[in-house]
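User: Let's play a game. I give you a shape written as tokens, and you guess the letters that built it. Ready? Here's round one.
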């Protein structure tokens, strides 16, 4: 199943919150995008992201979405609150690792996702990279 733009917005919001929580909201605020943050334009419009960074974020998104869907499936099979908390924590760690495997820090990833969510042109490009990644890996959502 391919994601529609509306589904992307919902998933992106949930994912950003998850990664920000797991990585620490305070840490996310300490690393604002700027001239020293890789992938961000130092030119006239700091609200852009280069294609390489957008592709890495899309690849991370596909992996994180897979982890999220698997976690939901596992959570639906347990009513034990302690077990659920453990499952969620493990999923958060896996999500962070997936983002880092793409050469990104969670804060950078979250910033890219926020830019994508608020920019239709970036969202279309991001979705095309997500679909390319899904096609290359055989994954669907």
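Assistant: Ready! My guess for every position:
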């Amino acid at each position: 199943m391919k994601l529609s733009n509306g589904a992307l917005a919902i998933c992106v919001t949930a994912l950003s919150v998850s990664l920000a929580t797991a990585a620490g909201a305070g840490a996310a605020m300490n690393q604002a995008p700027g001239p020293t943050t890789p992938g961000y334009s130092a030119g006239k419009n700091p609200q852009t992201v280069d294609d390489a960074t957008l592709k890495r974020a899309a690849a991370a998104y596909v992996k994180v979405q897979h982890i999220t869907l698997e976690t939901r499936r596992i959570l639906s099979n347990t009513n034990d609150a302690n077990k659920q908390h453990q499952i969620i924590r493990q999923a958060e760690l896996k999500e962070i690792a997936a983002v880092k495997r793409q050469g990104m820090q969670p804060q950078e990833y979250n910033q890219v996702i926020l830019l994508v969510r608020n920019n239709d042109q970036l969202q279309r490009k991001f979705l095309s990279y997500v679909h390319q990644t899904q096609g290359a890996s055989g994954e669907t959502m």
